[in-house]
Amino acid sequence: MMKANIISYLRTYGQESFQQRAFNGVDALILCQFSYLKFNGIIPEVRDFPAMVTLLDIWRNQNRERMFYDTRFEEENRALAEQLLLSGRFRQVRFGLFTDFVDEGKKVQFSTLTCVLEDGSVKVIYRGTDESLAGWREDMDMAFTYPVPGQEMSSRYLEHVAGLLTGPLDILGHSKGGNLAVYAAMNADEAVLGRIGTIYNMDGPGFKKGVCQMELFDKVAPKIRKFIPRSSLVGMILENFGDYQVVDSNAVGLLQHFPSSWSVEGTDFVYLEKLDEPQRMINDSVREWLDRLSEEEQRDFVDTLFEILQASGVSDLVEFTQDYKGCISRMWTALQHQDPDKRKRAAGVIRLLFQVSGQTIRSETFARIQEKLEK
Q1: What's the confidence (pLDDT) of residue 10?
Q2: What's the confidence (pLDDT) of residue 253?
């Protein structure tokens, strides 16, 4: 039996106002998923402020079909948009200050919007990684670069919004957006930081070593609520904070990363005590693998990977999905034409990952056997 999710929550509680039922983590996840829709020409941009629109305005816009460009999640996104439109809870929420920036050359993908509830409270929502190759490249750069361009842009955006809107602030983000939400708060000035209530990090990756020991992070740590699904991979990459809540999911494996799969009961998530054991071993292996690689090796591996991906001729993951067989064939051809030394180094990095994974599985298995023998 399929468990309830964010759509079920809207059907059941969507007519209750935020005065009747306070904004919560499920509402935050809904807005995070909503931020993935393509709002170019639909939600007013930063330069258009103070113009803002309601959900009804968005639905009446002649360009509304553009919102569902990402065909990988079209069904889920349409269901969410339609349910939000029927929801009295979100009917008076005003959306604006939209920003969408992608630069393949600078390896940056940044998109965000802000909404204002009836009581004047402000929700700054950072979109996670979209279908662009630049977005995925920036994600991988986080392993060896701090800050990446998107993080710096998130900080400037928050300061700008805080100067325009006076209400209390919550900051939200899913996937990379969760990381950006934390970074923006970390680098906010004292006046803005004092207005921030909660930072909702929905399965967002952490930061490279040392960042969580910085005084900047210590200031915002009490405000962070991080949620990860039971088989989280993305949210556990570079995770050095260790304070998170595990949410049950209707999906398996990596598909649990998507918000529509997260389990909801009543007005909250369904929580578990810990991550699934197989996933924890995978996460430990990835963490150890990254620790063993120098920054130069990490950078070289990512450069090679994306050179091959770009050689497939696709501009984003939607195109890749539509012609994945042809893209894989072209990627294989591009791999054969790579510089032999570079190809060898990339193969060594992959070999190390399998080696580390095997060591982790063997040690974990031995530990469990030993524990049983001792009992």
Answers
A1: 96
A2: 78
